[in-house]
């Protein structure tokens, strides 16, 4: 039986304990499986606040292109592939040789791991963060070194730097971070980059870039590049563009870095229907801004509702929010499941926190209605 991406991540050790380097125990994997929401969707199915998707779907312009291209679904996308690469390159003011497409940004993480990690080398990651890079590193026989986030839920760059050695092949930084939706300041990242070993590559995952807005501590490394040929920046069409189901992501890096990664990429991994749809989505600036504003409005309302319930979520710069419920996350996940709402999976490094993807206003109203049904007799715990 084929493994889904989520099942693959669990198999290779997602959700390791905060700061741990060893793979999680069998018990922790079993717990992860227990609370992992199903991926299928049916009419009248659950409200999905679990995967940080765009709840509004693709823009109207992107949908129109997608529908128009359906008759070409029987053809390989060879003719359009270069067009998309050129369009992304122009969008970021880089050369086409600096762009690599992938089946979602998850494939980009896989080929980066394959390109710059091997047995005896290390991948340096935060804890908690998106688990794919760590899982791919382990599959290659590389060691993974986890460093807990700091008190502000940013990457603890000083500790990461102290843990980096000549064996550190790749550092993974998700900014804004998943699952905490928090930022690591740009100025701190720039200093960090200059102090890493000369053989270490850095993968900067900017999947949630669009939701960070005009934060004074955040600037994309694509909007303001640095002179560092060991920097790889990834983006995805799964979030603000609403194309998660069509699986398209990309990397921007120095040409020689792209070529090193390309040799590990899956042949023809970009499907024919997503190519022109993605170009339409990229051009539809008005819809992107609308999605960003809708998310910001729902996010603000979430914080308002949380405050009325004396909850203090982590400040969010993404399209999801993580907050301390002061009780085991598994209890809350199961409570919402019983009421037909799916929220994010457990992150054992933050065992009393829950991650909630932001949906439409009516979906968030339903979320809070179910929250208020939470059994009051549950024993609260620290964390």
Strand content: 5-15%
The assigned CATH architecture of the largest domain is 3-Layer(aba) Sandwich
Derived from helix and strand composition plus strand pairing, the structural class reads alpha/beta
Strand order of the largest sheet: 2-8-7-6-5-3-4
What is the string of SSEs from the N terminus onward? HHEHHEHEHEHEHEEEHHHEHEEH
Kindly give the count of domains.
2
CATH topology of the largest domain: Aspartate Aminotransferase, domain 2
CA radius of gyration: 20 Å
Instruction: Kindly report how far apart the N and C termini lie.
Output: 38 Å
Provide the residue-averaged pLDDT: 88
Shape: globular
Describe the sheet with the most strands: 7 strands, mixed
Q: How many H/I helices? A: 13
Question: Explain this structure to me?
Answer:
With 383 residues, this protein is an alpha/beta fold. It has 2 domains: 5-57 and 286-371, Aspartate Aminotransferase, domain 1, CATH 3.90.1150; 60-284, 3-Layer(aba) Sandwich (Aspartate Aminotransferase, domain 2). The protein is built from 13 helices and 11 strands. The strands form 3 sheets. A 7-stranded mixed sheet has the order 2-8-7-6-5-3-4, with helices on both faces. A two-stranded parallel ribbon has the order 1-10. Strands 9-11 form a two-stranded antiparallel ribbon. Helix 8 (186-195) links the parallel strand 5 and strand 6. Helix 1 packs across helix 6 and helix 5 (104-116) packs across helix 6 (132-139). The radius of gyration is 20 Å and the shape is globular. Mean pLDDT is 88; it is low at 1-41 and 378-383.
């Amino acid at each position: 039986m084929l493994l889904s991406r989520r099942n693959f991540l669990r198999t290779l050790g997602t959700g390791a304990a905060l700061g741990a380097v060893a793979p999680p125990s069998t018990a922790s994997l079993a717990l992860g499986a227990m609370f992992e929401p199903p991926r299928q969707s049916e009419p009248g199915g659950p409200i999905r606040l679990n995967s940080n998707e765009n709840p509004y779907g693709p823009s109207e312009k992107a949908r129109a292109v997608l529908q128009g291209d359906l008759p070409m679904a029987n053809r390989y996308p060879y003719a359009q592939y270069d067009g998309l690469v050129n369009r992304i390159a122009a969008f970021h003011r880089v050369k086409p040789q600096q762009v690599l497409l992938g089946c979602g940004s998850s494939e980009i993480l896989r080929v980066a791991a394959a390109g710059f990690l091997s047995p005896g080398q290390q991948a340096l990651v935060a804890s908690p963060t998106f688990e794919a890079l760590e899982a791919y590193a382990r599959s290659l026989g590389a060691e993974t070194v986890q460093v807990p986030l700091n008190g502000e839920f940013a990457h603890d760059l000083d500790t990461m730097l102290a843990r980096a050695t000549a064996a550190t092949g790749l550092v993974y930084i998700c900014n804004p971070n998943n699952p905490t939706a928090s930022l690591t300041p740009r100025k701190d990242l720039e200093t960090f980059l200059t102090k890493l070993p000369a053989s270490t590559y850095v993968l900067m995952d900017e999947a949630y870039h669009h939701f960070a807005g005009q934060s004074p501590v955040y600037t994309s490394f694509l909007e303001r590049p640095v002179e560092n040929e060991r920097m790889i920046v990834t983006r995805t069409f799964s979030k603000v563009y609403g194309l998660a189901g069509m699986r398209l992501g990309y990397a921007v890096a120095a040409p020689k870095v792209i070529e090193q990664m390309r040799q590990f990429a899956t042949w023809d991994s970009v499907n024919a229907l997503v190519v022109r749809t993605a170009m339409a989505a990229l051009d539809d600036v008005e819809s992107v801004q609308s999605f960003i504003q809708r998310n910001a409005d729902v996010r603000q309302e979430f914080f308002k509702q949380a405050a009325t319930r004396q909850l203090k979520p982590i400040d969010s710069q993404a399209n999801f929010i993580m907050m301390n419920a002061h009780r085991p996350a598994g209890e809350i996940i199961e409570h919402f499941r019983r009421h037909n709402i799916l929220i994010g999976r457990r992150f054992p490094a933050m065992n009393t926190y829950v991650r909630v993807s932001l949906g439409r206003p009516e979906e968030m109203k339903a979320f809070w209605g179910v929250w208020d049904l939470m059994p009051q007799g549950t024993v609260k715990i620290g964390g």
